[in-house]
Design a protein that fits this description.
With 403 residues, this protein is α/β, with parallel strands linked by helices. It contains twelve helices and 22 strands. The strands form six sheets. The protein has a four-stranded mixed β-sheet, with helices on one face. Strands 2-13-15-14 form a four-stranded mixed β-sheet.
Amino acid sequence: MSRVIITPSVLKGTLKLPLSKSDAHRAEICSFLSGGAELIGRADSDDINATRSALEALRENKEIINCGESGSTLRFLIPVASALGKTVTFTGRGRLPERPIGEYLRLLPAHGVSCEYGGTLPLTVSGRLKSGVYELRGDISSQYISGLLFALPLLDGDSEIRLTSPLQSAPYVDMTLNTMERFGVYADKTPSGWLVKGNQSYKKCRYEIEGDWSQAAFFLVGGALTGTLELEGVNLNSAQGDKEIINALKRFGADIEINGGCVKINKSLLHASELDVSDIPDTVPALAALAAYAEGKTVITGAERLRIKESDRINSVVTNLKKMGINAEETPDGMIIEGGTPRGAELDGCNDHRIVMAFSVAALAAEGETVITDAQSINKSYPGFFRDFCAIGGKANVICNGK
């Protein structure tokens, strides 16, 4: 366990962003199903390493698949393993064993797969997935839909994914479809979902993993709060939904310039905004850090799924903002934040990578030092965060085991 001490400072200079975790998950799975494609760039984080290890376990016909703390690994690979006819037991740690997989427990047994599950992981699946109609809600995790999209082309017959409610987090599904198409596998859009032809084959290709818009959000907020910062390595034509962070920040009055694959942000006078984050829930901790400094009351809605992430992120954000002297309150699907003058405080990182990174950025312009617990949790998605943070002017002292 570790904690980090953040001293107020100014971010400035140029930073090349890490590779996208979301894109890398999808590329690794499609590469595995193709028999081994050439992936350009290697995303290194605990979650991506969990997916690589899980795929290696599938390749070697191992009985246990350890998903670490990665919800993407678990939800993407349950139907993939079932489509391949594997008998495997999925395990995990942290909050992952308690995270919902109910849609699969309902759908898979109806399509030829036995599920042994005691309310938390481990989950054992056996049998071979059969084609057919898969009905599920669109307002739950998009990871269920992506997992089925990866798997259904491998089946003998045609299948249909039929949504019974409007789709949320649609950009994540678009990312999955785009990656599949690069590997020669397709799903056809229908009025209520997708038709997926069976007997398709993933084909090897040369695939370059994109820069990460989700991680860009933290540094863009840091630039808006403190200085002038340029971020390189982002694709403005990306299917990543979190590129919407650009428009969200503009609504707060942030000064942003875009030139090719470079985004420049300058310290700005900020005002409150109202945001529906249904399609970009991962950006909420970073946006909340910005809202703490914006004049007026910011209202964030559409974030109810944040309650079942690595922490209850709605509660984690609001609790830590209050510790910094900011008026904030939870709502069922988000939060209300009244901007002010945050002060340094002792904060709980909640063993949640996005909470630690967001409040490291929030601490940049606070009055006094801030101490955040669970600094090691950044390894889940961005092990180099504090290295990059300090390289562009941030002051972070990571202390491991009290030393």
